């Protein structure tokens, strides 16, 4: 019998031809529409934050690899992906040190402390957003505006559905345009990087739950960003088909409850990290297990 060497590696496992760098490059391309929309609506403020998060992620990755004596200071494109997504979930009014600290936390604490790419049990960007809000709530909170500006908030309700989809200067950088996020999502679907199961279920479950809770209207960009770029994370979400449906369903319901009943616009990000904790359990109950019958000696 021919002896073959089997290479065993931890999950996630990807299809042949979909190398890590190819996947990361596709995600970067998919994020470009959201980046462009964010810079269009928030101008230089958005560009500075995105540049800070990407550079800080790269430097943090390089320093960590040097610390653990890895030969390559940058092993893949994942720090760039993480930096872009983290920048997109940042509001533009925060001081620049906030996204820099967030990038270091996401790269070192959430990712590298647990073994690096593919070994983290929680989405790094969503976990970082929760960490920053918890640690510096006053800084992350939207500044108090004067009465004139506050009164203009009523104008947002008169926006047409098309304006809400196309884009508006509301929320974090990457949440301004649902259309831009959907373009990125379609690109990833066509490229075979993600499946429709978790994102579609997440959005549908969130919309239905919003209606049940009496909240009418279109979901915010945060729901679409979380559904497309976080609910599809290979390392922190189920790999089984039924598991992906279940993850999207529970995360979507949780996101709406937090956003509506908790009055928290960052509900989708909290929902992602909460359900991330149940991913091993979901994977266990949705995996096909082969029973081996022991024969009597």
TrEMBL record:
The keyword Chaperone does not apply. It comes from the Bacteria. PANTHER family: ELECTRON TRANSPORT COMPLEX PROTEIN RNFD, ION-TRANSLOCATING OXIDOREDUCTASE COMPLEX SUBUNIT D. It holds the Pfam family NQR2_RnfD_RnfE. One of its GO terms (biological process) is transmembrane transport. This is Electron transport complex protein RnfD. InterPro entries: NqrB/RnfD. The chain crosses the membrane at residues 23-41, 47-64, 165-189, 219-236, 245-263, 269-286. It comes from Clostridium gasigenes. The keyword Translocase applies. One of its GO terms (cellular component) is plasma membrane. Keywords: Flavoprotein, FMN, Membrane, Phosphoprotein, Translocase, Transmembrane, Transmembrane helix, Transport.
């Amino acid at each position: 019998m021919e002896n073959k060497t089997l290479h065993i590696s931890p999950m996630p496992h990807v299809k042949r031809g979909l190398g890590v760098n190819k996947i990361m490059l596709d995600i970067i391309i998919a994020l470009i529409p959201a980046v462009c929309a964010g810079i269009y609506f928030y101008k230089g403020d958005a560009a500075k934050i995105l540049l800070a998060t990407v550079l800080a992620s790269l430097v943090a990755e390089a320093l960590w690899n040097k610390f653990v004596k890895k030969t390559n200071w940058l092993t893949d494109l994942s720090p760039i992906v993480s930096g872009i997504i983290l920048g997109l979930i940042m509001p533009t009014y925060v001081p620049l040190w906030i996204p820099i600290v967030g990038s270091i936390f996401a790269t070192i604490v959430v990712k590298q402390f647990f073994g690096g790419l593919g070994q983290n049990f929680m989405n790094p960007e969503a976990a970082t957003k929760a960490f920053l809000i918890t640690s510096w709530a006053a800084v992350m909170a939207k500044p108090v505006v004067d009465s004139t500006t506050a009164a203009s908030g009523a104008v947002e309700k008169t926006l047409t559905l098309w304006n809400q989809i196309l884009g508006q200067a509301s929320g974090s950088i990457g949440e301004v345009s649902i259309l831009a996020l959907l373009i990125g999502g379609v690109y990833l679907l066509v490229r075979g990087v993600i499946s429709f199961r978790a994102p579609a279920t997440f959005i549908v479950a969130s919309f239905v739950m919003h209606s049940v809770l009496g909240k009418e209207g279109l979901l915010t960009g945060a729901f679409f960003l979380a559904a497309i770029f976080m609910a599809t994370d290979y390392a922190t979400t189920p790999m089984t088909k039924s598991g992906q449906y279940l993850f999207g369903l529970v995360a979507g319901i949780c996101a709406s409850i937090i956003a509506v009943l908790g009055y928290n616009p960052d509900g989708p990000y909290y929902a992602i990290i909460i359900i991330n904790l149940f991913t091993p359990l979901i994977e266990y109950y949705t995996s096909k297990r082969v029973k081996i019958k022991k024969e009597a000696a």
